[in-house]
Each structure stands twice: as structure tokens, then as C-alpha cells.
Amino acid sequence: MATSSATAKALSKEQIVAGFNELRQQQRMLASRISEIEMDMKEHDLVIEVLKGVDASRKCFRMIGGVLVERTVGVVLPGLISNREKMKEYTESIRSSLEAKGKELNQFRETHGIQFKADDSKEEKRSDSSQKPGDRQANILANV
């Protein structure tokens, strides 16, 4: 613990802000990736529902790596179901990474005494309402 407090004092305000912003950016990227995968899962669900009502020997086309390939529904449907399950598992693993990143972010915030102006009293919020949104980054560190 002594080394972490020594490291915290050795970092400048700019380095602390940069580290905090980096962690927040990583957290946003994970959330964005989850959103993308969930949209793909919804598309898979739609296609799976349509293909379940179709004869298994019927011809269909599937895009694989940018190439349109002719297959039968009986071949494509199990692959789609399998891909959807893999996406679900991957989303769950990214969610756990997102939770871990959130904990890391909170720990970093506590370690370096980072406070947002939004965390302060309502009176200060009213005075900050005239401030530009881009100025919030400058107000991240209040107790450093």
C-alpha cells in the first residue's frame, strides 16, 4: 500500500487526469462493443425466426467474409444458431470486463481523490450551469 500512495503522489495532475480519461475511454469502448454485438444478435434472431418456418432443402444465400455463398436452409440454420450462442457468450465475457473496468475506474478515482463537480453540492451545480460542457474535464480533479 505504501508504494501505491508514493506512486499517487509522484504523478502530476495532468498524468492523473490522462490516466482517468484513458480508463473511461476503455470503459466506453467495451460498452460500445456490447451494443454492436447485441445488434448483430437481434439480426441473427430475426433471420433464425424466418428460416425456422422454411423447408430445410430450400436454397438460401449467406454472406461469408464478404462473399455471397449459396447453401441450403438446413446447412445455414444450425450455423446461425451456433454463431448467436457464441455472440451471447462473448457479450457476457465483455460485460464482466466492463464491470471489472468500472471497479478499476472507481478504485483509481478513490486512490487519487478525483471528484466531479456534479458530486458537489447543488449550489455549485447551479453556478456551473453557465459553464461550457467542454470545461468539465478541467473540473475533474478537485482534491488533488
Give the tags:
144 residues; mainly alpha; 4 helices; unfolded protein binding; PFD_beta-like; chaperone; Prefoldin
Shape: rod-shaped
Give the fraction of residues assigned to helices: 55-70%
* Cross-sheet strand order for the largest sheet: 1-2
Give the tally of β-strands: 2
Query: What count of helical segments does DSSP give?
Result: 4
Structural features, described:
With 144 residues, the protein is mostly helical. Helix content is 67%, strand content 8%. The chain is built from four helices and two strands; from the N terminus they run ααββαα. It is rod-shaped. The model is unreliable at 134-139 (pLDDT under 50).
Short description:
By secondary structure, the chain is mainly alpha-helical. It is built from 4 helices and 2 strands; from the N terminus they run ααββαα. The longest helix has 40 residues.
Topology:
Blueprint (H helix, E strand, L loop, with lengths): L1 H9 L2 H40 L6 E6 L2 E6 H40 L9 H7 L16
Antiparallel strand pairs: 1-2
Helix pairs in contact: 2-3
